[in-house]
Amino acid sequence: MTNSPDRTPLTRDFFDRPVLEVAPDLLGRTLVRRHTAGTIELRLTEVEAYAGEIDPGSHAFRGRTPRNSVMFGPPGHTYVYFTYGMWHCLNLVCGPEGRASGVLLRAGEINVGAGLARERRLSARNDKELAKGPARLATALDVDRELNGSDLFDGPTPALSVLHGTPPAPALVRSGPRTGVGGDGAHQPWRFWIDGDPTVSPYRAHAPRRRPSRKAT
Question: How far apart are CA 206 and CA 168, in angstroms?
């Protein structure tokens, strides 16, 4: 039995391209999370591109570290990081091996396994909020650092994979500044989303974290 076109897995070559080609091309694709508890499928509706050592907003801007080493390839792997001491975020590594780049998966619509996602996202008011934002997406899919570096092409049933799905019409793809990125990388229009989709997260500009002022004694 052959897969229908939308159920065909993407190939590693899809990810072995410049990040600004891969990121908007991921919109409408189906992300599959396989778990012992069951399978969740999500249609990607919002992503952000990070271009490594040429991108001040990227974790790899200052070079390779133990934390970001998976971003340097090979393409088609996952980069999972922990942020604010609370949340995980899921990225897909792309571009030629040796050049760090990745796409942050910011939001999506869960089409299969919503019940499993609700068990992990008890605060979601409705199903449109289950994966509305990168931390929510990772929580809904039960993604943590144990999946960092996992291969999307690791056998017939990898923990995470991406199917062809149904990409939106080009006229529906929007771009703008990345959410929460400050400094020299603040104004890069490297956030991509499907216009009008209710699962897309709201844009928030970078807000510097202020240290509490010390009162004189």
Answer: 28
